[in-house]
Amino acid sequence: MSDKPFFRFHPDAYDHGVFDESDEVCSACSRPCVWKYNQHIYALPPEPKAICARCISDGSVAKVVPDGDYGLHDFELGGETSEALAIEVEQRTPGFSTFNPFLWPVRNGVPLAFLGFGADDPFKGDDAVKSAIAKLAEEMDGEIAPDYAMIFKTLDGDEYVATLDLD
Ligand SMILES: [Zn+2]
Predict the structure, then answer these.
(1) Sign of the C-alpha dihedral, residues 22, 24, 28, 30?
(2) Widest distance between CA atoms in the chain
(3) How far does residue 18's CA lie from ligand 1's centre (Å)?
(4) pLDDT at residue number 128
(5) Which of 42-71 are b and which e, b meaning 16 or more Cβ less than 10 Å from the residue's Cβ?
(6) Bridge partners for 111 per DSSP
(7) Would you list the domain boundaries of the chain?
(8) Ligand 1 mean position, distance from CA 28 (Å)
(9) 60 Cα: distance to centroid of ligand 1 (angstroms)
(10) How far apart are the CA of 30 and the centre of ligand 1, in A?
(11) Which among 116, 129, 132, 140 would be 20 to 30 A from 44, CA to CA?
């Protein structure tokens, strides 16, 4: 496996800074991390010292947490999906910092990909993102500051969905 695996439900994970370049030895595969995960792992203590991107991608984190039970997000899936996709999102997709538990959107049984927060540079002037945030504001019956809007997109379509990270 590549030292820098691609995560389809968090495609810009490396740009989002959730991995650091590091030679530290990964607790799960005992090889230099290359890309060391720097976000929280939700599991019973003790927290593994270092986890590499490869072991996030293939789920090897399970080997070094109590009962093999862990998650990478403080979230709930916003709809029905298969067990395999639910596990891919929860355990094999790198997380990102949020203030609160959030809803991960699902459409037609498939979770969406997390693209970033509404205020991120790549979204400047993006009308599809703007209208997803506007739709969310309408649902919430209020104004939404773009920095609190989490932007998701369908894997093979171009439907954008915004969800809210309240502080
Ligand atoms: Zn590893």
Answers:
(1) positive
(2) 50
(3) 15
(4) 94
(5) bbeeeebebbbbbbbbeebbeebbeeeebb
(6) 106
(7) 19-68, 75-164
(8) 5
(9) 7
(10) 6
(11) 116
